């Protein structure tokens, strides 16, 4: 299963990604979690202590590695560099291990915008392609709304795109924009998970506002999610009710995908 999880900032993407990763790992599956979000918080959501999480250097910021693999140093004006650098050993060398899950923090290209043609961009694109096409593990990607790490070729290796929304017009507008982008990239299956719902009215708002989307389920608002974040512990270990909701979402996705 190769999943990309996206949505407007602050809706709960990282919570969903971390819980899905923990649930698959609890089944004995080999899980690779990819933090491709500019605000990289997946490590702590998975349960890595804060001081250890802060020591993780995103791949996009490893200047020596980028220069070694592409032949050009980030920020330099080198006219030539490798567009398909070697990346097959990067997941094992640079992933953190958390409760049976391998975590790889991608980082973002901070100059030139999302369309930047630069050594770090070339490395990230090659790495993402390797992870999606060659990794046999369950792969779960926590991404921003721009889905910037997915190119047209790599996007087609994603089994499903899960868009997380909260009850609100802006969140739903973002979801619609993401689906258009996903369609341009060749991703055919887009699902929705409602987040931070607190009533049947909230859930009805989401389903009625998104009649053309398949809704996998809902993660109700829980003060324990915020408490877990403040305490630096995983929601998986802090709120059994939320874990049960995400387990139902996972089972519904697997039924739809025939997995």
Summed up:
This protein is of the alpha/beta class. The protein is built from 12 helices and 8 strands. It has an 8-stranded mixed beta sheet, with helices on both faces.
What's the alpha carbon Rg, rounded to whole Å? Answer: 18 Å
Overall pLDDT metric = 88
- Give the termini distance in whole angstroms: 8 Å
The coarse overall form would be globular
Strand content: 15-25%
For the biggest sheet, the summary is:
8 strands, mixed
CATH architecture: 3-Layer(aba) Sandwich
Poorly predicted runs of 5 or more residues: 111-115
Strand/helix succession: EHEHHHHEEHEHEHEHEHHH
| Broad CATH class | Alpha Beta
Number of helices: 12
Relative helix content: 40-55%
- In CATH terms, the superfamily is P-loop containing nucleotide triphosphate hydrolases
Q: What is the number of independent domains?
A: 1
Q: What fold name goes in the CATH topology slot?
A: Rossmann fold
Produce the secondary structure layout:
Blueprint: E1 2-7, H1 13-26, E2 31-36, H2 42-46, H3 50-54, H4 63-70, H5 90-94, E3 96-98, E4 101-105, H6 119-134, E5 138-143, H7 152-155, E6 160-165, H8 169-185, E7 190-197, H9 200-209, E8 214-220, H10 223-231, H11 235-238, H12 240-257
Parallel strand pairs: 1-5, 1-6, 2-4, 2-5, 6-7, 7-8
Antiparallel strand pairs: 3-4
Helix pairs in contact: 1-12, 4-6
């Amino acid at each position: 299963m190769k999943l990309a999880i996206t949505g407007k900032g602050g809706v709960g993407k990282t919570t969903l990604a971390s819980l899905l990763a923990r649930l698959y790992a609890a089944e004995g599956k080999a899980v690779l979690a990819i933090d491709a979000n500019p605000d990289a918080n997946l490590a702590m959501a998975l349960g890595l202590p804060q001081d250890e999480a802060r020591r993780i250097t995103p791949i996009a910021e490893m200047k020596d590695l980028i220069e070694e693999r592409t032949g050009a140093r980030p920020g330099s004006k080198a006219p030539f560099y490798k567009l398909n650098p070697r990346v097959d050993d990067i997941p094992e060398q640079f992933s953190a291990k958390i409760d049976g899950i391998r975590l790889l923090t991608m980082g973002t290209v901070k100059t030139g915008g999302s369309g930047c043609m630069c050594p770090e961009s070339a490395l990230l694109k090659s790495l993402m392609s390797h992870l999606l096409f060659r990794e046999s593990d369950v792969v779960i990607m926590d991404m921003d709304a721009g889905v910037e790490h997915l190119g047209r070729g790599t996007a087609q290796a994603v089994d499903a795109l899960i868009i997380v929304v909260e009850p609100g017009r802006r969140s739903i507008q973002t979801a619609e924009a993401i689906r258009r982008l996903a369609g341009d990239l060749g991703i055919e299956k887009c699902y929705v998970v409602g987040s931070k719902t607190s009533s049947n009215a909230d859930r009805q708002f989401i389903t009625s506002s998104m009649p053309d989307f398949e809704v996998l389920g809902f993660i109700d608002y829980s003060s324990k999610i915020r408490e877990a974040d403040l305490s630096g512990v995983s929601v998986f270990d802090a709120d059994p009710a939320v874990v049960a909701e995400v387990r139902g979402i996972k089972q519904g996705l697997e039924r739809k995908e025939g997995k």
